[in-house]
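Dig into what follows:

_____
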Amino acid sequence: QVQLAESGGGLVQPGGSLTLSCRASGDALEYYAIGWFRQAPGQERDKVSCISTDDGLTYYADSVKGRFTISGDEASGTIYLQMNSLKPEDTGIYFCAANPYMLCDMAPLTDFNYWGQGTQVTVSS
């Protein structure tokens, strides 16, 4: 299995930026797709971005496309989510998760078997 730990959340004004980090340990990242998910209070947990770490293919939800960028650093075992032009609706707990089937855009939530504990992102003036 792989262990995941998120960091980098915080309070930011609308239009601001944050970079989230997901550090992995255990299994090599090349054996997983890594997704970022967001959950707001009372809402379902939704996939916002994903990267297949072996080939670098990426996925973005329509709501974040053009504003968020996902990237990976295999040397440090870290996946980043650069979030720009943040909106209040981006507020939520952000989780990273690993999919051992190494798929992103077509992978359902249930395929992501390994999860971090989440980091809070609050976008507010």
